[in-house]
Amino acid sequence: MKLRDPRRGPAAAWPAVLGALLLLAFAALLAQHAAAARGWTANASWLGEALAALDDRRPSAWVLAGGAAAALLGLWFLVAAFLPARRSHLHADGPGDLWIAPAAIEAVAADAAERAPGVLHAAGEMRRRRLRVKALLAPGHEAAVADILESVGARLGGLGELEVSVQAKEGAR
């Protein structure tokens, strides 16, 4: 039985939270209107005042801008609802169903780079399928970049298509 791929939260999670907060604010507005209509509060209805401000025969620029913003927000919600969630881990080649977290790949790449000759310190940074290894080289070891690429490539050989780049800087003498 094949399990589902590990995925992040869906793209519609934040728009859903925003939509829920907007509905909550609208519910509070309706509750204030009901309280004002029943006479439970001395304040006038906010909804009534807003509708009275909109009651104008001439079109207002801010109403048009608000309508355009609402249409764009609705389109953004619609697009986010259909976007699939991105994978959170990378699949390793082989017969098993093994998935590796990007933080683990960064740590393995940094360890492999630090074991290359002439490297004082290394750190990995993963962005989707791109791995950037930042290395601090000992003075006089400019040729260590090829060794770092070879070392990291050998250690991460079973991870499929992974683009590795090395950014090396020589340390101070």
Describe the structure.
There is one protein chain. With 173 residues, the chain is α+β, with helices and mostly antiparallel strands. It is built from 5 helices and 5 strands. The chain has a 3-stranded mixed β-sheet. The protein has a two-stranded antiparallel sheet with strand order 1-2. It is elongated, with a radius of gyration of 28 Å. The termini are far apart. The relative contact order is 0.12. The mean pLDDT is 83.
Please report the number of helical segments. Answer: 5
Q: Please, what is the oligomeric state?
A: single chain
Mean pLDDT equals: 83
Instruction: Work out the helicity level.
Output: 40-55%
Largest sheet: 3 strands, mixed
Shape: elongated
Q: Beta-strand level of the residues, as a percent range? A: 15-25%
| N-to-C CA distance | 57 Å
**Which regions are unreliable across 5 or more consecutive residues at pLDDT < 50?**
none
Order of strands, widest sheet:
3-4-5
Radius of gyration: 28 Å
Which H/E pattern describes the elements?
HHHEEHEEHE
Secondary-structure content class: alpha+beta
User: How many β strands by DSSP?
Assistant: 5
